[in-house]
């Protein structure tokens, strides 16, 4: 109780007291989500409670003293697991190509909406870059958040589930690449060259070490003997891979999210087939410890008064996300033949709502944009609140549409 009393006395929160409250919120999140029968997702609970204990409200906790570094590692772990779960097959074929073209259309449409409807705050630097940052945030799909929802709905192996995975995979990867190319001080051409150099470094890490192990089987057997007990070398190796590619991305002046996502993709190619037992360990570390810290700390950065002072902007962002991401997906599914199109209006509406559900990348984009001076903190708070609203409302509406359509089917 001393930690709580220390938080009340008006003194600056210490790192330990902040981490205590963050851990408390992380533990309460799934309990609260369960009490409301999953209608309020765990991630939304973490953001809201983080905003309550953060410096803009009660100020019981802040991100000083290394808490921000732990949060950044949590962000990296979130996108590592997203890259690990990404099936490259979803990005190819005609459905994958259509999903890529649809995302490009979403980005152009979102940019047009931003130019027409959003007044950037005075003092922000670089009008075009700031507008494109908001547009990128509006075109993301929270595939990692949607996976449990899709699995729980029992549609993972159905045409609707496969369509959600295809558009979700592109809606997660494309904004990450766009962040690295467009939200930078370099010219787009120079950023593309740097991105290719980063891809070459990631490919070297993906293909060279396995060849070395194949040529030295004794070394592989020795390393395999260090996989259990108090050593846990594979888990340590994953953490090293994450930090290596995040450090490489930082060296190339790319966003560390790209390095984390690439680490997940590389990791899937290296060990997914031969070591499936490693995935539960990574999920335990990620979703059990690091990722909740990231979401709570992100919530601590939300200024609730800024959101309440601009309710129209908040609602406008939610509507703009639905328009910019959901409508093009619906139109493509209705009018562009891929050989795997959904056949009912209810399924197409569900797909549009699922595709427009975005939060983790919105949080990441706003962090990058505010850090670079491209976006004000108030605008970032409203945009994150809008992203949380999409996670709260859009999957719920999609589930209700599915239930109402089920008897007729």
State the gist of this model.
With 409 residues, the chain is mostly helical. Helix content is 75%, strand content 0%.
Structure explained in plain terms:
By secondary structure, the chain is mainly alpha-helical. It has a single domain, classed as Na+/H+ antiporter like fold. 75% of the residues lie in helices and 0% in strands. It is built from 18 helices and no strands. The chain has helices at residues 2-8, 15-35, 42-53, 67-85, 93-117, 127-138, 143-153, 159-182, 188-215, 217-224, 233-251, 256-271, 278-300, 304-309, 311-335, 345-355, 360-371, 377-405. The longest helix has 29 residues, at 377-405. It is globular, with a radius of gyration of 21 Å.
Features:
single chain, 409 residues, mainly alpha, Na+/H+ antiporter like fold, 18 helices, globular
